[in-house]
């Protein structure tokens, strides 16, 4: 009798649970946008490096009956460096995945922290790209942006992006080095010198580029001036060039920025901070295209990553440098 | 009904007791299974540089009788920062363990790695000889 009393409510509970679980969730169509609205995404995904652009896509629209777009602007907390602009073309992606531009306004103008463009066509929707070239004054700080659009009905919409931390790294790309000529590399200056210029900058020369066809494991090399003479065969160093720089060979670390936007790997500040250079040698032999070396200068002022973009058998190579100040 | 329940419970308890009394498989201090295997040798050896690319100039010569591994490395190899890799017979382990980059730069005092068999009863020290 007691069991039957329990069984009935349990049965009801199970039936109710089953019914509730099977309730269909009806899809409701969102309300159409009734006024000027906007949205923004950041398209750049790597570290933010001074001199390189941050790219955004800023979308804006209003119902056609309300009017048209009049102007769009972006305000950054640090004025962008030369090359900062807001596209006057709106992009859409076609069925082949290609971004197709359509001119919708006059080229943008920069005034201090503000970048502005005016629409010249009658349009109620657009997606504009914004390229912010990171200025030197923002190094190690944060940047943020306010995107704003104005429409002909007097309405304004804004969208805030950021803050984004700006890396402490410096970058220089595609430096040509050659055996016996432009062979002296300065991490401090992020430049390559010939022997005469190296002599006048002797205290800044960290590495010597060498090429030796034999032994076959030597080929393209980066050798510290203070390295054993065995790794500097036939080299007479300019007077005063005597620094000992630690090197660590790496293969397969093709930073996207150094590799001219190939590959999907990024080196960031934290990589330099956590780098273990204890007991590393002061030479790196047998470098190949797309290999690299981590570098720590003798005064421990800088760490760097030198990427070998290309090499050729005539004893020349193209390198790119990412440098971090400790 | 009550009788049926008693029988079921009794079977269940017996099962639990039998399972709980089953002897565990033996494991060593590293949590590795100790097996019956007596094979104890190095089958292959590799030496990688800091870029994880081989620094060998030729295939390593492994002498399982003399228990030596002779490796010739490329000129200029930085032996302070290398990663040795051993392939061992089934169920064997290596002592000392290789946990990261290794300093093999002292060529006058070659490093000795001991292979321990699967049954953990046989130990064979291999001398790693490196030359340029």
Question: How would you sum up this structure, described in words?
Answer:
The complex is a heterodimer of chains A (326) and B (132). Chain A has two domains: 37-165, Domain of unknown function DUF4466 (Immunoglobulin-like, Sandwich); 170-325, no CATH class. Chain A has three helices and 20 strands. Chain A has helices at 2-21, 195-200, 269-273, and strands at residues 37-42, 53-61, 69-76, 85-93, 99-103, 109-111, 114-118, 125-133, 142-151, 156-165, 170-178, 184-186, 191-193, 207-212, 219-223, 246-251, 283-287, 291-296, 302-312, 316-325. In chain A, the strands form four sheets. Chain A has a five-stranded antiparallel beta sheet, with no helix packed on it. In chain A, strands 6-7-3-9-10 form a five-stranded antiparallel beta sheet, with no helix packed on it. Chain A has a five-stranded antiparallel beta sheet with strand order 11-20-19-18-16, with no helix packed on it. In chain A, 36% of the residues are buried. In chain B, strands 2-3-7-6-5 form a five-stranded mixed beta sheet, with no helix packed on it. Chain B has a two-stranded antiparallel ribbon with strand order 1-4. Chain B is built from one helix and seven strands, in the order αβββββββ. In chain B, a hairpin with a 4-residue loop joins strand 2 and strand 3 (68-72). Chain B is an alpha+beta fold. The termini of chain B are far apart. Chain B is elongated and about 85 Å long. The chains are: A mainly beta (326), B alpha+beta (132). At the A-B interface, strand 16 and strand 17 of A face loops of B.
């Amino acid at each position: 009798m007691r069991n039957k009393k329990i069984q009935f409510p349990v049965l009801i509970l199970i039936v109710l649970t089953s019914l509730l679980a099977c309730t269909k969730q009806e899809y409701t169509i969102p309300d159409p946008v009734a006024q000027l609205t906007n949205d923004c995404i950041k398209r750049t995904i790597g570290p933010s490096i001074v001199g390189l652009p941050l790219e955004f896509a800023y979308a804006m629209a209003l119902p056609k009956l309300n009017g048209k777009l009049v102007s769009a602007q972006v305000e950054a907390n640090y004025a962008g460096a030369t090359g900062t602009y807001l596209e006057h073309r709106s992009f859409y992606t076609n069925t082949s995945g290609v971004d197709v531009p359509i001119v919708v306004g006059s080229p943008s103008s920069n005034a201090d922290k503000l970048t502005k463009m005016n629409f010249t066509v009658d349009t109620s929707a657009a997606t504009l790209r914004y390229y912010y070239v990171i200025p030197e004054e923002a190094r190690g700080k944060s940047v943020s942006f306010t995107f704003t659009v104005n429409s002909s009905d007097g309405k304004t919409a804004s969208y805030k992006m950021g803050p984004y931390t700006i890396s402490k790294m410096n970058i220089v790309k595609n430096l040509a080095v050659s055996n016996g000529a432009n062979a002296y590399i300065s991490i401090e200056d992020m430049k390559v010198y010939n022997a005469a210029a190296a002599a006048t900058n002797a205290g800044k020369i960290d590495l010597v580029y060498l090429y030796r066809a034999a032994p076959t494991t030597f080929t393209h090399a980066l050798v510290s001036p203070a390295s054993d003479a065995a790794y500097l065969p036939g080299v007479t160093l300019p007077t005063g060039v005597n620094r000992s720089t630690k090197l660590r060979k790496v293969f397969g670390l093709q930073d996207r920025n150094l590799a001219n936007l190939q590959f999907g790997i990024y080196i960031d500040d934290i990589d330099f901070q956590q780098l273990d250079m204890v007991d590393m040698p002061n030479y790196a032999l047998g470098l190949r295209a797309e290999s690299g070396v981590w570098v720590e200068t003798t005064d421990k002022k800088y760490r760097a990553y030198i990427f070998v973009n290309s090499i050729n058998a005539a004893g020349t190579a193209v390198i790119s440098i990412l440098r971090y100040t400790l | 009904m009550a009788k049926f329940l008693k029988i079921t419970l009794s079977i269940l308890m017996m099962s639990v007791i039998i399972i709980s009394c089953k002897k565990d498989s033996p494991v060593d201090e590293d949590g590795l299974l100790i097996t019956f295997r007596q094979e104890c040798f190095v089958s292959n050896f590799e030496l990688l540089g800091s870029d994880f690319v081989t620094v060998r100039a030729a295939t390593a010569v492994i002498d399982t009788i003399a228990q030596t591994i002779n490796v010739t490395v490329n000129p200029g190899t930085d032996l302070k920062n290398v990663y040795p890799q051993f392939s061992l017979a089934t169920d064997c382990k290596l002592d000392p363990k290789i946990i990261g980059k290794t300093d093999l730069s002292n060529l006058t005092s070659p490093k000795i790695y001991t292979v321990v068999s699967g049954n953990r009863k046989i130990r064979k020290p291999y001398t790693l000889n490196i030359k340029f």
